[in-house]
Amino acid sequence: MMAAPGLPGGTEAGVALQASEGVRLEGPRRVTVRDLPPAAIAATSQARDVVLPRRVVARAAAEADAGAPPANVLDASFSLEPASPPSPSSAGFEGLDNNDNGTVSGFIVTPPDPQLAVGPGHVFEMVNIIGRIYTRTGGAMQTFTLESFFGVPAGYLDTDPKVIYDATSARWFASYVSLVDNGGSNNDQGRLHIAVSQTNDPTGSWNLYDVIYAKVFPDYAGIGLTSDKFTVSSNVFDIDGPPQPVTPGCSAGGYCGEQTIVFEKADLLAGASTPAVCGPSANLGACFLPASGPPFNAGRFTVRPAHSLSPVNDQYLATFDLSTVNQLTLIRVTGTPDGGDLAEASATNLPIITQNAPPASTTAGGGSIDSGDSRLLEAIWREGHLWSSASAACVPAGDSVARSCAHLLEVDTATNTITQDIMFGGIGEYFSWPAIRTDGSGDLYVSVTHTSPAIFAEARASGRLASDPPNTMSGSVLLRAGDVLHTSGRWGDYLGAAVDPNWPDCVWLVGEYAKDTPFSSTWDWGTFIVAISYSGGCDGDNDGWSDGAETTIGTNAALACGLDANPADFNSDQAFTGFDLSAVAVAIGSSVPPAAARKDIAPEPPDGSITGADLSAIAARIGLACVP
Prior knowledge:
This protein is mainly beta and 628 residues long. It folds into 2 domains: 15-533, YVTN repeat-like/Quinoprotein amine dehydrogenase (Methylamine Dehydrogenase, Chain H, 7 Propeller); 548-628, no CATH class. 7% of the residues lie in helices and 39% in strands. It has 7 helices and 38 strands. The chain has a 6-stranded mixed sheet. Strand 13 (171-180) and strand 14 form a beta hairpin. The chain is globular and about 75 Å long. Mean pLDDT is 84; it is low at 1-20, 43-47, 244-248, 552-566 and 593-602.
């Protein structure tokens, strides 16, 4: 759900969040995922259709006059340019779909808002309005309603799931939005739900917090993390407002403004209890930005906190300037809630290619899907570089019609300059809803929806190597082809991506495609999940060896013991013992020829020689039997 920049009056240091302000923070409550009740099974005839409204805010009049800019990067997969897209690690697996929503919750919901997070042993997917936890090979472990997971009160509309795994703290963070219109604005209530796992096991216990609003609700929340902060930004709307463009200003049916809440990360990890305070006396540190001024920041819309993928304390955020069509605003927040020094240290406007709302994406069968609007979708930060993404209108070179394109922006946060401004499209092709992540090498991965008049909506992946020339992409690869015509008129409202904490050069993507599902003949959508890498950095068979190592040196847990044994079985006793470990140890420093004779003894990384890293990797397998 999307609607279209703190708490009323702002939050000063040392001030607790009071119900008298119209907003209060409660928690923590506890939920244990493995103890959630089994999801009810609804009959196809009993499912109810729900279209979640998108709320937007009026943007600069210049948008209507600016037109669609040219695409400066064509998808090489649909042109004569050379293509070298990232490679899926395995065949991938089917994610949640429209049928799951209908079966589990009794509701058919569009759009799905797919999200994905990956931990050491699990994959966690959320869509509107259910969640599922998988093994890393795609086995479904548990499926449940997000209403039961977040503790949404009965009768509330719930939407906009977000989930990320924080490798630094080894915890999962999630958010959700709910609201109820009780008739009469004084009785309306909105909630921002926050969940933090107690361990790295998402099937275990979580701490739950609720930010409760009177009369308004926090729409389209986005979450971000740094080394010491957890940040949530949302667009605040009056609950009685209609699902159509509105004029900025908090009037009945209007936009109130953007709100950013910054939590002390350590307090959330500790399960600290409310009341929350912005300042040194905090039990649970939480501050609202702006710290002073009007109740909400009506001059901003859809601010995206960056998910920091490398250590940093400063929280970077990004948004498109409401007053123009060619500026990205980079925001830097410093300090901490507990320190009493949290502040928006800077907000810098940076020139970009014109960012206009995209046209609908045409599909086979005379249909079309929603490509979104002109808002920013997400932001990530790694080692001084912030990437952000959006759907946008562009005209590919050689084309005469505006298409939906993927707008990808890179900012050097040390110099506050745009280093790459990519408008990615294709002649006669449509790309929308780009979700992004960079791997440990700085390579970029993008999950997108792709359509053309010749195909149904499909899931694709694209990206670029960090070493590629600026403002270039490496083509795209199909993740899952579309099955049927989708006619609900809604798609998105975003996709998801996640870095694998076990394999830093591996990124997981969730895409959306038009899937034939029995619960609807027109609202058919499904999601597809895949791990992908430019360097063979994933572990497609989940055996502990990367795809790159197996390609180079031939180890594979699915093979029987022998010359390609895994673990390395030197004496052919069908097990890996101290004898085998000693055989490897005495060979440290030796080169490994690319031949079948003993190509399995230098497993990680595939560098052609036997090193201490190889010895450590093999030692972890001692006592394991070979796979018959």
